[in-house]
Amino acid sequence: MSWQLSEGATRYKLIQTDSDGTLIFSNDFGNINSTIVYNLVQSVKYIFTIYSGNENGFDLSEGRSATLSIDCPFLFIIF
Question: Are 11 and 54 within 8 A, CB to CB?
């Protein structure tokens, strides 16, 4: 999974939930624009949200979300 870097951001937070909003995975990253997401289950609908941040924290009002349901493995990109 990859995303565009935000101007002024120095770290990112990725949150993965299922379609009911149940938290599956959350991780903070440094100034990178990609990660590998493991353990996706076929036909399950996932919602991924990426937040940008800096030394003052994350702006949780400005996340970018994408919904994914897979039938086979592939590369997933958020813009």
Answer: yes
